[in-house]
């Protein structure tokens, strides 16, 4: 057997099931790895060593008495926006620094019911707002491929932990690209399922009409395995879909017949790093020449990327996303008032309005405050029609473009991000440039579609390049198979 840390989640599960190793052994190996590497990486906000060891022992005895679940004994990490009734759930924010959730997120409960061992909570941008994991009270997470670079965000801690073999797999959340972009930056697989495919219950809300929980894994089969475990209707989340969950793993090795892959022309403009463009075109070639797919040109006009009069990049999708996401964020974050959750200003003798405003001024970081202010503005009586309502109309146009594109193809192939991982500090002083890190991922959330990021190659300076596959609503099974076809045929170095 290979080194235990090198096994995928599926391989590890099978090795434990076959008695070749145990969950206790695997869990100890991961805990040691975290201990020795996380000082450098900063991927974890909290590690539950004792609890994990205890859970590993119980997984081993379940295996022995034949009642093992689908993830029996597999050590995983979860992003610190998912509630657990043990430890803290902080969203990497000072305002929730001491918050202990009274109940688990449905996704976490499902992982544990399937026998997974939760190692700890991973770092992220505060309330998942960011693209670099630099907006965190805990400090930034570093990219394991190059410690001077960001791991992407906001699920950068989960991506780094998976890439650095600190866990077998992890969960992230994706509101505008936060699973896919860090997966691409760290050279792993990140899967954002259809909106509503996976319960949001116990996921601390950022943009409720956009948020999705999904797996971040070493390979496509692991993404299928984790999605299998976490997907499904949840009576506690009224937006979760009451649709049967197919067996995502059963046919994962079966190539999709008569596959048509669409290349959205708008995503290959001069905004895209030429090396990434070349890698994606090479992937399209591989689908065509080795896998028998037909490549078709499609158009997503409302997701196009333009240059304004000053030569700066602009995009309807980015503008629309940031209005919708910030409006929803400003409303969701109103609940942090010092009375119900987390931090409360230590100052006494304040009236209630002063208490609220001091608490929020002390508790929220700069980016979160910026978004609360912008979102409050776009929702305010005089501006609602000009911004929020207009953004909702653009959102519909973006969705219509995808519907039309899927008449001509089964899945879309495109970049995940316009660049590879950038240097720590490079964009943190310039929010608008940072927002442009999401130009290829946000339309997917606006349209509610599933999207997967998988490794496609390496840049000249050995940084991972990811590619994105996007499918119609609830096309997870096919999308995973199409991703697996490439993974198998390319044997891409990751
Ligand atoms: N970077 C985007 C934002 O800051 C997306 C974040 C996310 O998907 N959570 O909103």
What does this structure look like?
With 494 residues, this protein is an alpha/beta fold. It has a domain at 4-230: Amidase signature (AS) enzymes. The protein has 15 helices and 13 strands. The chain has an 11-stranded mixed sheet with strand order 1-3-2-4-6-5-12-13-11-7-8, sandwiched between helices. It has a two-stranded antiparallel sheet with strand order 9-10. Strand 2, helix 4 (106-113) and strand 3 form a beta-alpha-beta unit. Helix 9 (316-332) crosses helix 11 (366-379) and helix 9 crosses helix 12 (385-408). The longest helix has 24 residues, at 385-408. The two termini are 20 Å apart. The mean pLDDT is 96. It binds glutamine. Residues 128-131, 154, 174-178, 206, 325, 438 line the site of glutamine.
Key features of this structure:
alpha/beta, Amidase signature (AS) enzymes, two-stranded antiparallel ribbon, 13 strands, binds glutamine
Please report the total strand number as a whole number.
Answer: 13
Number of helices: 15
Query: What is the CATH H-level superfamily of the domain at 4-230?
Result: Amidase signature (AS) domain
Order of helices and strands: HHEHEHEHEHEEHEHEEEHHHHEHHEEH
Helices and strands: which structural class?
A: alpha/beta
**Global shape:** globular
- Give the distinct bound molecules: glutamine
Which architecture of the domain at 4-230 would the CATH scheme give at its second level?
A: Alpha-Beta Complex
- Provide the helix percentage: 25-40%
Q: In whole angstroms, how far apart are the ends?
A: 20 Å
Strand content bin: 5-15%
> Looking across the biggest beta sheet, what order are the strands in?
1-3-2-4-6-5-12-13-11-7-8
What's the mean pLDDT score? 96
Could you list the spans in which at least 5 consecutive residues all have pLDDT below 50?
A: none
Largest β sheet strand count, sense and barrel closure? 11 strands, mixed
Could you name the CATH class of the domain at 4-230?
Alpha Beta
What CATH calls the topology of the domain at 4-230 is: Amidase signature (AS) enzymes
Radius of gyration: 21 Å
């Amino acid at each position: 057997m290979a080194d235990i840390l090198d096994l995928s989640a599926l391989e590890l599960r099978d090795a434990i099931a076959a008695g070749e190793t145990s969950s206790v052994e695997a869990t100890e190996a991961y805990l040691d790895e975290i201990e020795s590497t996380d000082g450098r990486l900063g991927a974890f906000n909290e590690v539950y060593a004792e609890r994990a060891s205890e859970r590993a022992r119980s997984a081993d005895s379940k295996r022995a008495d034949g009642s093992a679940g689908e993830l029996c004994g597999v050590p995983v990490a979860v992003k610190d926006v998912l509630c657990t009734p043990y430890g803290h759930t902080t969203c990497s924010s000072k305002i929730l620094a001491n918050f202990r959730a009274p109940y688990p997120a449905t996704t976490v409960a499902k992982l544990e019911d399937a026998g997974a061992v939760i190692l700890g909570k991973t770092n992220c941008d505060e309330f998942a707002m960011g693209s670099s994991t630099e907006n965190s009270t805990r400090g930034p997470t570093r990219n394991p491929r190059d410690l001077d670079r960001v791991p992407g965000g906001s699920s950068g801690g989960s991506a780094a932990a998976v890439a650095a073999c600190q866990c077998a797999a992890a969960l992230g959340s994706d509101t505008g690209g936060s699973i896919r972009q860090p997966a691409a930056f760290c050279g792993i697989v990140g899967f954002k399922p259809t909106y509503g495919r996976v319960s949001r219950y116990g996921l601390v809300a950022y943009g409720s009409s956009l948020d999705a929980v999904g797996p971040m894994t070493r390979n496509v089969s692991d993404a299928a395995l984790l999605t299998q475990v976490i997907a499904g209707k949840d009576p506690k989340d009224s937006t979760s879909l009451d649709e049967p969950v197919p067996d995502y793993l059963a046919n994962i090795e079966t190539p999709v017949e008569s596959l048509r892959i669409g290349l959205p022309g708008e995503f290959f403009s001069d905004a895209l790093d030429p090396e990434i463009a070349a890698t994606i075109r090479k992937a399209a070639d591989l689908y065509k020449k080795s896998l028998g797919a037909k490549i078709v040109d499609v158009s997503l006009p409302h997701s196009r990327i333009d240059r304004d009069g000053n030569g700066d990049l602009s995009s309807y999708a980015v503008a629309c996303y940031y209005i919708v996401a910030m409006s929803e964020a400003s409303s969701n974050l109103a609940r942090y008032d010092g009375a119900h959750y987390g931090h409360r200003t230590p100052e006494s003798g304040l009236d209630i309005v002063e208490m609220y405003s001091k608490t929020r001024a002390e508790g929220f970081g700069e980016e979160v405050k910026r978004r609360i202010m912008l979102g409050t503005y776009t929702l305010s009586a005089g501006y609602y029609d000009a911004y929020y309502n207009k953004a909702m109309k653009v959102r519909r146009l973006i969705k219509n473009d995808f519907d039309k594109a899927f008449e001509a193809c089964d899945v879309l192939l495109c970049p995940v991000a316009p660049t590879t991982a950038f240097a720590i500090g490079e964009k943190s002083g310039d929010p608008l440039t940072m927002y442009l890190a999401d130009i290829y991922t946000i339309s997917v959330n606006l349209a509610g579609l599933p999207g997967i990021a998988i490794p496609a190659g390496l840049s000249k300076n050995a940084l991972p390049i990811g590619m994105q596959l996007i499918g119609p609503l609830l096309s997870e099974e096919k999308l995973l198979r199409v991703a697996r076809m490439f993974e198998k045929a390319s044997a891409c170095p990751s």
